[in-house]
Amino acid sequence: MHKHEVKNCPRCHAAFECKAGSITQCQCSSIRLVDEERIYVESRYEDCLCINCLVFLQQEYAVFKELHIYKQP
After folding, report:
1. DSSP, res 19
2. Which helix (DSSP H) or strand (DSSP E) does residue 17 occupy?
3. In a domain, 73, yes or no
């Protein structure tokens, strides 16, 4: 039996089901972050985020990168 838990997104506070025990079924597996995007997200949040916030942050990173606003740590 796989462990699933309801979490609250640290960014928007929405509840979502984290399926870390069955990652291929988790909502986060529907988005592909390149290493730079993953580092960007991880530099701001320590816990899982909902899919909507992951998509938003991926797009935000693209804009910041284009405008040369964000420099990786």
Report:
1. -
2. strand 15-18
3. no
Question: How far is residue 27's CA from residue 18's CA, in Å, rounded to a whole number?
Answer: 7
CB of 26 closer than 8 Å to CB of 39:
no
Q: Convert the pLDDT of each residue in 21-56 to its tens digit.
A: 777 888 888 999 999 999 999 999 999 999 999 999
Which domain range does residue 33 map to? 5-66
**CA distances from residue 24 to 19, 34, 40, 62, 70 in whole angstroms, order as listed:** 8, 17, 22, 25, 30
**Could you tell me if residue 16 is inside a domain?**
yes
